[in-house]
Amino acid sequence: MNKSYTYNPTKAAENGVDRMRLELGDTTFAPPELTAALCDEEYKVIISQNPNWRKAKLRCLEAILMRYSHQVDTSHDGISYALSDRVDFWKKLYDELKRNAGISVSSVKGSSGKPPYFKLGMQSNPRKG
Q1: Around Cβ 30, how many Cβ atoms within 10 Å?
Q2: At residue 73, does pLDDT exceed 60?
Q3: How far apart are CA 68 and CA 80, in angstroms?
Q4: Which residues contact 13 (CB under 8 A, 6 or more apart)?
Q5: How far, CA to CA in Å, does 112 sit from each of 15, 22, 98, 116?
Q6: pLDDT tens digits, residue range 9-33?
């Protein structure tokens, strides 16, 4: 599958890949496979699955964090790469958006319409000691 990496600033007013790239600062591709956070197809899937723009933006940031979280800092012969700096940048952006987004987690209700009954320690066995 070919991945595409595009950015058209004239389309940044529309709720789509271009706006998401602009808001996340993911607009430079040189080379795209190494510098772009996500490809167009990944953005499109996340945006289509989350009609709420803020939630879509959070999901994009989660995908970016998952992509970069495995990268480590490295140095060789005087050249060093601090790849963890990218994770720090995206994590700060994610935390700020999550704090200000006002997106709540929906509560789960049982068949009676009441929340299910759970309590701390309900899985523990008192006879086990």
Answers
A1: 7
A2: yes
A3: 17
A4: 19
A5: 39, 45, 32, 9
A6: 999 999 999 999 999 999 988 888 8
For the chain, the distance separating the N- and C-terminal CA atoms, rounded to the nearest angstrom, is: 55
Tokens of 6: 């595009």
Number of Cβ within a 10 Å radius of residue 46: 21
Burial class (CB in 10 A: 0-12, 13-18, 19+), 97: middle
pTM: 0.69
pLDDT over threshold 50, residue 105: no
Distances (CA, A) of 16 to 47, 56, 121, 124: 7, 10, 45, 48
Please report, as a single letter, which amino acid is at residue 53.
W
Q: What is the pLDDT of the chain when averaged over all its residues?
A: 82
